[in-house]
Amino acid sequence: MNNKLEKLVQNLFKEGVIRSEIVKQVFLSVDRIQFVDESDKMYAYEDYPLQIGFNATISAPHMHAYSLELLKDHLQNGVRALDIGSGSGYLCAAMFLMMKSQQSKVIGVEHVPELVEKSLKNLNISYNQQLKDKQIQIIKGDGRLGYEQEGPYQAIHVGAAAETIPQKLLDQLDKGGRMVIPVGKGNQVFQVIDKDANGKLNIQNVLGVRYVPLTDLKKQLNN
Ligand code: SAH
User: Fold this and answer.
1) Where on the tree of life does the source sit, at the highest rank (predicted)?
2) HSE-up of 97 (CA within 13 Å, CB side)?
């Protein structure tokens, strides 16, 4: 039993951020402490982002929960999901558990090589088997290009703010699929993009947010 994690989940539930049983269970199953830096372990269950180096952060628990709730109906058995700017690897684990099946697959794409290594190390603690089976995979690359090889994806989470929605990500979104993405410079808006059976897109603005930019590696490191 992890009291601090339970308390966090209770609070997110009270605040209405966690609304479903499945997100609640997944939140209790993925231990955030495995995804934060050594020096921040004592803050693992606080509801704010934490630095993970290279001008990146592990997002705040309420944003992880919010994203999982929005993607919930698309993280079904046997589907493929994409996590752009996978950073700590937390959401790759959480998205995988949402889908809980042997046929499911989560691909994380991250451009900082050291963060790719760090996330693999984090995931290796409890998700070693899924890494071996390639049910969870972290790809080093430019997330704006997505990862065509494994697409199309029923669910795409973008964990960094794009100035405009990358076309490649829209292309790799499956029919009937959903993408959540922070968009904008400075004032960002969290958008939910649904692609219907005919390939038509519907875009909703749901929340004002602050994310690390989805940008060139050089720009991020010089920030
Ligand atoms: N969901 C992650 C968020 C990490 S912060 C977590 O909670 O841990 C955003 C991440 O996006 C950073 O790790 C950053 O390195 C990455 N990123 C920014 N621009 C990128 C790009 N063009 N391609 C791939 N990753 C990118």
Assistant:
1) Eukaryota
2) 20
The beta strands (E) that lie in 184-216 are given as 188-195, 201-209
**Closest approach atom of ligand 1 to CA 112:** 15
**Strand locations in 113-172 (E):** 136-140, 153-158
Containing 106, the helix (H) or strand (E) segment is strand 105-110
Closest C-alpha to ligand 1, atom 10: 85
Taking the alpha carbons at both ends of the chain, their separation in whole angstroms is 40
Render pLDDT for 168-191 as a digit per residue (tens, 0 to 9). 999 999 999 999 999 999 889 999
Is 59 one of the catalytic residues? yes
How far is it, in rounded angstroms, from Cα 33 to Cα 10?
17
